[in-house]
Amino acid sequence: MELIWQGILEALRLILSGDPGVLRITWLSIQISGMATLLSLVVGVPAGVGLALARFPGRGLLVALANTGMGLPPVVVGLFVSIFLWRSGPLGTLELLYTPAAIVIAQFVIAAPIVIGLTVAAMQQLNPKLRLQFMGLGASRGQVLWLLMREARLPLLAAVMAGFGGVISEVGASMMVGGNLLGQTRVLTTATVLETGKGNFDVAIALSVILLALVFGVNYLLTWIQQRGRTS
Amino acid sequence: MGQMVRAISRRSFVLGVSLALAMVGSFGATSAWSGQAVILSTTTSTQDSGLLDVLVPLFEKKTGYSVKTISVGTGQALALAAKGEADVCLVHAPDSEKKYVADGLLVNRRLVMHNDFLIVGPATDPAKIKGMASAVEAMQRIAEAKGTFVSRGDNSGTHQLEKKLWQEAKVTPEGAWYLQAGQGMGATLGIGSEKQGYVLTDRATFLAFTKRVQLVPLVERDRILLNIYSVLEPNPAKFPRLNATGGKAFADFMVSAEVQDIVRTFGVDKFGEPLFFPDAGKREESL
User: Fold this and answer.
1) Can you tell me the ipTM of this complex?
2) Tens-place pLDDT, residues B5-21
3) B37-115+226-286: which CATH number, 3.40.605.10, 3.30.1330.10, 3.40.50.1980, 3.40.190.10?
4) Domain boundaries, chain B
5) What pTM value is reported for the model?
6) Are the beta carbons of B30 and A183 separated by less than 8 Å?
7) What 8-state DSSP symbol labels residue A177?
8) Is residue A20 part of a domain?
9) Closest to B30 (Cβ–Cβ): which among A28, A34, A232?
10) Which helix (H) or strand (E) holds A124?
């Protein structure tokens, strides 16, 4: 118990004193996971909307695949992304392994199915008559899509939270493709593993507390946007 | 109401976009590297001891290369270098190293330093091994007494030495008393402490953890317990994409007089004794 208190005190000390090492690691975590979430939204929302609204053969299979992908183990993603990015691998010439970009790629692979799966669910819970109504009111195809997405914005924001929460807290893939390089690819989770390995449990707890606070902060912001949109 | 929603969503859109741009913008800054990168694959023990935190920045300053240190178990560190995925490796598993050299995948094996391993365990010492001179006999006795033993189980240098000890003791470790952690040295010591079992550990990690774990040194200073670190380079003839010059520069740096001096005194201020002993230019048999 004393250790946990020590850790929390250490966390406060590190945050309040603006420890440059910890700030850099925290900021890098936000950037990498933020970027990965952003990319997964750019790809995942249109893909999810398409899967929810379009009807074509093989659609059921794709939805099932996306839903399975929501539980994709990060270490498996890490292993495959590593093999692809190795010098001897198909994408070796890009020299991306052990860079922040490699982590973004891995986290994108983890987050995209989450966003797709939740987007499909969000769009499908809308009343199907809504679409006909919008079309009947003379809305163009693009306008219909936009209006439907606006109707589904509450669950869509939940998709963003789930995607971001999933990647910022994952450690397996970040460790494997990033290499936990100080100042380059060391993020909150991999730093926590390292400090635990070194026996610096108080620093490890401090990093965990920062990670939790960060996830809470982002989710609070998104929830605020979500709920505010609802009451107005 | 629609207007208000639109205003809010426009505001959050602008907020989102500017956040995104800020992220992308500073991305380039944090990932900017000076010079060409050298990928060093090494063991967790060199990083956990803090030695590389001193040596790597010095190397970067002197040569302009930037080093990417990948700390994994020795098994993986060697395998990465032997595939040409790392430019140089700093490891401690002499038998495996020699195999890779014999296969022509790694070249130029040079001794850097050594420290030693010791067998630690609960103060109650149920297998009665305290003070034994031979580590092999101690392992035999642990197996006979079925004393709990926590193994790294990760093919690391430490685990490879442990397997060698079992082999020489003519024991196949299996049964409820033999636990395989599959984790790093620190985590394994933690498990050993909780289970009150025996653990084979390197001295540097044990010193770092000594306050956290309820384990005491039982068997040490046997010659077989020497922990010898070497640098090896991948064979440049086999791997065209290798940064062979950078890798060699790092290996040369590790055996240079300057680094050897740093190694000699590293850790004295924190632990009261050095963590490593410099060995550049020596022969393995003379240690």
Assistant:
1) 0.71
2) 444 455 555 555 555 55
3) 3.40.190.10
4) 37-115+226-286, 116-225
5) 0.77
6) yes
7) I
8) no
9) A28
10) helix A100-124
